[in-house]
Amino acid sequence: MIKHHPTEQLLTQFSQGELPATLSIAVSAHLELCECCRAKVESLEKRHAEQLFTLPSNDIEEDDFADLFAQITSNDEIDIPKPSEPKTLEYQNKTVSLPRAIANMQRGNFVQLGKLARSRLQLDDGELRASLLQIGAGGEIPHHTHTGFELTLLLDGEFSDESGSYVPGDFIWLDGRHHHSPATQSGCLCFTVVNSALHFNKGLSKLLNPIGNLIY
Amino acid sequence: MVNHAPRCETRAVAGNKTNMEQAPTQALTDALCKVAEDRDKRAFAQLFEYFAPKIKRFGIKQFANEALAMELVQETLTTVWRKAHLYHPDKGAATTWVYTVMRNASFDALRKMKSNKEEHISEEIWPLFQEEQSTDSDFQDHLQSKQIQDHISKLPPAQQEVVKGVYFQEMSQEQLAEHLSIPVGTVKSRLRLALQKLRAEIGDSND
């Protein structure tokens, strides 16, 4: 069962279109896997709509929109959306289907680093970087802290860290207060969003600090 | 020709409130259904008059710029006009649907301001047309696609050809027009008629 969900605040910002694109993609992907958050977002949207559209307000200017009306209705065609084919990804000899928002973004090829493989989304989103990350069976990421935040959405498989173990759909938000060393027994596929490099804390893994950027 | 009762009018808007609150919401929902089913310009005028000033006010708050606010009005209401057929009254009130259309347009506009790129990724994040989520069993899916196939086979041949080309062979409307040696406009209008018919049929039998 999914135990880790986006906060109410994140869901609210998401429903108002106020989250950056990469985080919006992460929340959208979580919603595909989590019925209860989907219902929450639907009720938030309903509430925003009521606030903007049905509560009485006095500060509405009367404008002349006649030209715009004529322009819009002069074309009688309708837009047919592309049927969206579920997209799949082959990894570790498995085929998994990707949530729509992730599947439909441009991505780079997977870059392998030991048991990790990362494919970054080619999406300009300020300092935020989003990637698909595979960790092979028995793989782990050395003990690290985040100088900014790290959002992990587990899409397939399992992993665990000092705080517990995670299942697909879990939405795990960590920041500078958290130290962890995630590890997976059977391998996993995650979607991650970070806004700065990781900081490795222990022994030889400190040597990785210059490439922390590469991992996520 | 069977005369299908519009599927929207018989339904109540989800989440009932008091009559006072419900009245305008229900009227807007009915108007949106008329736009979806009959391309009814008078119904669209009703929506337009109601939403345009409110969207503009939201746009001014959002962008602090009148020209961008007007673009938001245009973008949102154009989508309402052209995609009304994607609206399903049983998923919520018209106000909520128009809100999500506006939110998406605003999201894309803000990204365009920041990254200077013309993208429409909001449609991937918040698809206006959501297939039923995967909680349904495969069994259900098969039944449903069988049912849809049956309905398609009852369409006039010219419309069948277009629906099959676009949905089963995944041709673009332009490719299909070339393939069939007919104008793109004809492809579009055949597709529109076919979808209206399918929606009416499938909607009815689900009731």
Plain-language structure description:
The complex is a heterodimer of chains A (216) and B (207). Chain A is built from six helices and 13 strands. With 216 residues, chain A is of the alpha+beta class. Chain A has a domain at 88-215: Jelly Rolls (Sandwich), CATH 2.60.120. Chain A has a six-stranded antiparallel sheet with strand order 3-4-5-12-7-10, with helices on one face. A three-stranded antiparallel sheet of chain A has the order 11-6-13. In chain A, a hairpin with an 8-residue loop joins strand 4 and strand 5 (129-135). The longest helix of chain A is centred in the first third of the chain and has 20 residues, at 35-54. Residues 1-22 and 132-140 of chain B have low confidence and may be disordered. Chain B has nine helices and no strands. Chain B has two domains: 19-125, RNA polymerase sigma factor, region 2, helix turn helix motif (Rna Polymerase Sigma Factor, Chain: A, Orthogonal Bundle); 138-206, Arc Repressor Mutant, subunit A (Orthogonal Bundle), CATH 1.10.10.10. Helices cover 70% and strands 0% of the residues of chain B. The interface between A and B is large, with 48 and 68 residues.
Rg result of chain A: 21 Å
What's the CATH first level of the domain at 88-215 in chain A? Mainly Beta
Assign the CATH topology of the largest domain in chain B: Rna Polymerase Sigma Factor, Chain: A
The overall strand count of chain A is 13
Topology, number of strands of chain B = 0
Roughly what fraction of the amino acids of chain B lie in strands?
A: under 5%
Helix content of chain A: 25-40%
What helical percentage do the residues of chain B reach? over 70%
Domain ChrR-like cupin (chain A): 130-193
Organism (chain A): Pseudoalteromonas byunsanensis
InterPro entries (chain A): Anti-sigma_ChrR, Anti_sigma_zinc_sf, ChrR-like_cupin_dom, RmlC-like_jellyroll, RmlC_Cupin_sf
Pfam families (chain A): Cupin_7 (PF12973)
